Amino acid sequence: MLIKEDGYNYKERFKTSSKFLIANGYYGYRGSLSEDTSKDMVVWNLNGVYDQVDNQWRESVNAFNPLFTFIKYHNETLHPAITQTKKHNLSLDLTTGILNRKTTFIIDDCEIIVRSRRFANQKNLHLIHEEYQLSTNKPLNIELYQGIDMNVFDISGRHIKKIKQQIIDGVFFVSGITQEKEHPIDVMSKIETNFESTDKPELTENKLLHHYSIKTIPNQTYRIIITAGVIHSKQHQKDILHKMILNSNFSSVINENNYFWKEKWNKAKIHIKGNQEANLAINYDIFQLISHRPYNEFVSIPARGLSGQVYKGAVFWDTEIYMFLFYLLNDIHSAKNLIKYRIHGLPETKIKANHYHYDGAFYAWESQEFGFDACSDYNLTNPITNEPVRTYFKELQIHINGAIVYALNQYLTLSKDYSILKSGGLEMLIEINKFYASFLTKNKKNKYECINVIGPDEYHEHINNNAYTNYLIKFCMTTMINYFEYFKKSNLSYYHEISRKYKNIINKAKDIEKNIFLPKPNKDGIISQFDGYLTLKDIAIEDLLAKKKTENEYLGGKDGLASQTQIIKQADVVLLLVLFPNLFSKEIQKANYHYYKKRTEHGSSLSKAIYSILASRLNEVDEAYDYFINGASIDLTGKSKQYAGGIYIGGNHLAAYGGAYMAVILGFLGLDFNNKTFNKNIPKAFEDINTKLLYEEAIL
Ligand code: BGC
């Protein structure tokens, strides 16, 4: 359960620090080095706080860095990028969540050994801890600095203004407010040292530092323990943080931390027997999912987790379709928070629907606080010309609504916590269906059609009757009707009240359920991804990729190489088959699996796990394994797209982690969610899988 990396690679440092990210749902802290600065993308990313500078993209906010620690020797800062090293390694211990670092620098024939241990406090979510130690094998005059770096890494403008620094009872305190909503961001840090040396604090415009001049005694360990905290909510009080920091005791926090992880692993661990690579990958994914659980019902999980501002720190359908199952089966409380986050977003979704002249609720493609849609109309840039590219994700990916209903239904099926329906869940369902009802159009044959959308495969825009979307809309209608029926049986007076109030949408839903156009398999069993898809140019992926003019070329949209072809970005029809396995025979599933796998570029990290599940269900277990291991280890191998067009999209791939979990549970273990049965499909690559599935415990 140890993720390791030996040696330092400057060019790969962003990928490395993603891999070693630690988080606790309140914040994420990238696995950068103590001496790194904003140019190395040191990021303490906050969940649920967003800000916009001028008319740049609105994105999540990063806090000041309180773990900034470095050594100067002869006026030069030691850093593995410029200083000679004998050894350098990082390791993340998944069993305890502790990130260990060891570097041996060589200077003037002397070895300087730096070690650190860092972890995110999982109980007191404001706090982060680091123990930093150094020793030398010869006497050396060094300068040691530790403090808060106010040079925050930001992608779209400097978000924190009115920065103030103070020292209160020896605790460093830096505060500021965000540009747009003047939201307070407060960072504090306390240090304890085991050595006697005069502290000469340095206060510059961008840094607040302790400074020690030390003449080292060979082989003696000089230790600094840093306890730092952040507050990013108006409700949380600064003086409470101050007390928390003063009272925090490193060894008891370590014990609490170990206990937390022990408990979590006891429930969530998956043991893949006979394959260490797969075992490590899936448990790394689980580690990150646990680390990203939402801290309350007003936050969710961004697509890139808390690894930074990529994708604006926003929440996508990734959460409901890809990550949700993990929380459902391991941490039902977090699953409920995820649903509640969407319920709290309802007012914003009505504004969006209204803006596009529809009824009901239209959920954000890129959701920020209270469901605000941060998706831009120009969400990409052309990597050659640097020109913004008009994209239609925001207005045409209407399948986002259905993803939320899918998760709500899973939650209700498992938890039987029907109270959520009365506290906004039913309204959400109704409003989502009102939106769909106003979006659909009737054709001459009296069938409802879904015109001008984008499906999960984003490469093809302005398409009609995307099979995935149409089936999903029918599912939304059925789900709503079923919950009305549930109230009819369980609470007749409430049923009468709501059926009176929502008579129109119920009648409409029944009509749509019966009459929506559902693309059927053709004579070869293939379901057309959308109207006319099967008549597009059928080209091999390699041939298409060979035409690329630049590495980061975007393949979709108006001028994209894939747009007029059958090459797709990610699982689309295959996702339909995976989410609704009972609608299609095994033959149809097989035909579509083989057809679409040749045409899927997997340009999104959401794709491979879905192919893995279907492959398992079709008994193509070895292919299932290949898809699984590729997706599950995406951030361990670093094999992921770093750019979409000219836009940087690196960071942690939370949906791939959730997808890998689904691939194990729904694919290899073959869980049939509705019937609660298992049908194991174990690939040759490993012997067996063990996990506790705490079904009954999940039920509230
Ligand atoms: C995918 C979307 C996904 C988004 C965030 C895009 O590349 O096509 O389906 O929601 O990334 O992960």
Write a brief structural summary:
The chain is an alpha+beta fold. The chain has 21 helices and 26 strands.
Describe what you observe in this structure.
With 700 residues, this protein is an alpha+beta fold. The protein folds into 2 domains: 2-237, Beta-galactosidase, Chain A, domain 5 (Distorted Sandwich); 265-695, Glycosyltransferase. 35% of the residues lie in helices and 21% in strands. It has a 9-stranded antiparallel sheet with strand order 1-8-9-10-11-18-15-14-13, covered by helices on one side. Strands 7-6-12-17-16 form a 5-stranded antiparallel sheet, with no helix packed on it. α9 (399-415) runs antiparallel to α10, α10 crosses α13 (503-515) and α11 packs across α13 (503-515). The longest helix is centred in the last third of the chain and has 24 residues, at 467-490. Bound molecules: beta-D-glucopyranose (BGC). The site of beta-D-glucopyranose has 12 residues, from loops.
Bound molecules: beta-D-glucopyranose
Contiguous low-pLDDT stretches (5 residues minimum) are: 696-700
Q: Determine the oligomeric state from the structure.
A: single chain
Q: What would CATH call the class of the largest domain?
A: Mainly Alpha
Most strands sheet? 9 strands, antiparallel
Strand content: 15-25%
The helicity comes to 25-40%
First-last Cα distance: 31 Å
